[in-house]
Amino acid sequence: MLVFASRGDPRRVGRKDGRRTDCEAGKSEQKVEQPEQTAPPVVHKNIRALLEVHRRQEKEKSLAVRISETVTRFAGSLGFVWLHAALLAFWLMANTKLLPMVRPWDPYPFVMLAMTASVEAIFLSTFVLISQNRMAELDQERAELDLQMNLLAELEVTRLLQMMEKVVEKLNIPNTWDDLAELKREVAPDEVLAAIERESEQE
């Protein structure tokens, strides 16, 4: 049984028994049949390569680095702050006789508390420095990888320009680019670094 909707209602025709019309069913099937957009295979290959490098770096970590990273991770969390706040409050209340059931062991001026905090700060700073050294090594490796990739890309672009110049000459196409001769030259990294140093010294 068909039920006609009022004028202005976007749902023109429907069924009283709740069944969808052929038009509605076709639209739903069309939505389901749309393929999901996936990344190209080369992207998945690069992701797997990066994950493999990350797993290899995790396996090569020494015990000292693992301990320092664990301590540093906990020291940078909110739980570390709440734990120290609770310990400090208990220490002060116990040694100022606010807790009658606890015998004071470090009365004012809290010399043991100051010594304990100083020793803890020494160890924490050491763990942080170890973690920072590890991060600096990883950053150096990534910087070297980026440099190698940039040099490779620059070499590929130079080769492409040289090939395109040959094609332009073969097809007798007039060359209107004044800087093409400069762009097709291979760039030596040591020359670039020397130029940067000269410019820095002049400034």
Quick summary of this structure?
The chain has seven helices and two strands; from the N terminus they run ββααααααα. The chain is mainly α.
Verbal overview:
Helix content is 68%, strand content 3%. The chain has helices at residues 22-32, 41-59, 63-75, 78-95, 111-170, 180-183, 189-202, and strands spanning 2-4, 13-15. The chain has a two-stranded antiparallel sheet with strand order 1-2. α3 (63-75) crosses α5 (111-170). It is mostly helical and 203 residues long. The chain has 7 helices and 2 strands, in the order ββααααααα.
Provide tags for this entry.
single chain; mainly alpha; disordered N terminus
Please state the average pLDDT score. Answer: 79
Unreliable stretches, pLDDT < 50, 5 or more residues? 1-16
Number of helices: 7
Note the main sheet: 2 strands, antiparallel
Q: Could you say which overall geometry the principal axes of the C-alpha atoms support?
A: elongated
The helix content is 55-70%
| C-alpha termini separation | 87 Å
How many strand elements? 2
The ordered string of helix (H) and strand (E) elements is EEHHHHHHH
The strands making up the biggest β-sheet line up spatially as 1-2
**C-alpha-based Rg, rounded:** 35 Å
